[in-house]
Write a structure and sequence with these properties.
The complex is a heterodimer. Chain A is 70% helix and 0% strand. Chain A is mostly helical. Chain B is elongated, with a radius of gyration of 29 Å. In chain B, the strands form five sheets. In chain B, strands 2-3-5 form a three-stranded antiparallel beta sheet. The chains are: A mainly alpha, B alpha+beta.
Chain lengths: 361, 250
Amino acid sequence: MSTLYTVLQDVTEWLMGLIASLVDWTKLGFLSGLADWLETEPVLTTVTTLLVALIYFISLMMFGLCFIWMERKFLGRFMDRRGTQVGVLGFFQNFADGIKVVLKEHIVPKAADKPLFELGVFGILATSFMLLGCIPLSPQFYVINVPLALLLGIAIFSFAPFSLLIGAWASNNKFSLIGGMRGAAQLIALEIPILLVVVSVVVMTGSLSFNGIVGWQQAHIWLGIPLFIGMVTFLVAGIGESERVPFDLPEAEAELVEGWTTEYGDVRWGLVMACDYFRAYIMCGLLTMMFLGGWDGPDFIWAEVWYLAKTFIVFFFFIWARAAMVRIRTDQILKLGWTRLLPLALINLLIAISLKVAEVF
Amino acid sequence: MRIEERRYTKTDHLRPTGYLAKSLVVTFKGLWRNTKNRPCTVQYPWEKVVYPDNYRGRPGIVLDKCIGCGRCAKECPNQCIEMVQIELPNLGAVKRPQVNVGRCMMCGNCAEACPTNAMMVTPDFELASYSRAEMIFDPIKLQHPYKPGYEVNYEFALLSEMKGGEAKTYAKNDPNVHDVIVLEGAKCISCGRCAKTCPAGVIVMTETGELNPKTKKPIKHPKFDNTKCVVCEQCVEVCPKSALSIKEVL
């Protein structure tokens, strides 16, 4: 039970009691059963879980906005300009953009496959938001804590190519389709090195839950030191997996006009754009958890702060790569994935196994 | 290393040093520099770049100096200057230049041509407005406080002297070296319009000593004070018998 959950349980009990007394106050006979039902255990558990998920979701959405803001400001400095200017240090530019996107008209192309067209966006939205819940901020602040959390996260992450292809195909636009194809090929090519690196972490720590992985690192050593090759491989593959420069082929702004999201206009496009940053956050979070000790840090400040600070530092490298490098071709990405990252991941796995066999840790 | 000596191989830009390390180092240096100091962006409405001393913005005028000769209107390549009639408290109804700033190309020729340096170039460049009518600056709106350096001065040499081998330079508005008005006496009918028109007041109708054979009155011809003449050509234009012409100094 997370602290968040236990705190919210009291809130839920009070809230349900309030609603039940309101229902009683109406003196409607057929509602008397409802008031009793509201205060039963299953209802309380469900509502509390929903509240926890809501609060976690909102807080991580805010951190996602911070990521966008950070990227804008840092890219500005990288490019010798100032970045966003609206509000305090330009932070409210994101809100302005969000309001603008919400107010846009929803346009579906005439020849598009309408149900699939909507489904494509909701596929990528749902998987990205589910991923937000998979990664705990600390042992006290999380939504779910399943034993196979790492595997679950990677599994949900690998749903993205389907959404891309669905959205691209349903748009009935050849450029969208090319973008979707590129995206799917790239995501699949880079998933295998990522999985192999994850395997090496699991070999070292013997656990698939984030609590176990971070606990092992707290007890022994941050895994980024023995498995440095794995960390670099994961960073490169993570940049590719979150479709960022220099691997932003799926949404090549200049020649494919946003890739598979060409035909998406209004708030759907805005959310997909935000999802890019959520997925980047998830990659940063996974890297922090697996190699940088998660919420491990001196005790003078909360564990969540340590975790988020490390995530932001990792994201700085994402931004740096974006500012420094140019986009590479599809064949180069695939070549990089299969002939560079895959061998590196295998070498990393070998190092992990030999360290484990030699009983260094 | 000279540029000719650099050799590019096929995959030079894809090597780790070329594609990764170098670009990362270059961008990080930029980040450090721009964070430590400041980006090169100038946040325009709030901060402005210092303009150079000889910056030429919109034309401005000092109404006290202006004599209304109209040389600015004649010189203007875009024909955006027009002489309009205004009421001045001490002079009454006079003609003064009005500038259509929307058409002005800020060349400063008007200030260069001005014989009294009343017209000048100001550093004022923020001229955006909501309508075209606001862009037309009448003489009152065109006024601008004078500062030394706003007027446009130049030096010139005479071609005839340059041929002689020794070129002497003269300042703008040198009273002794400028074009002169020539009167063809036989054509003059002594109407005196030139004297009335002259903005500098250098034309005086003087008696030539001859008498008109019909009316027995003395014949008057204009006499020019060449040290004060600004060569505005208004007398030439107004003469009904084309008796006046310009003789250029060469």
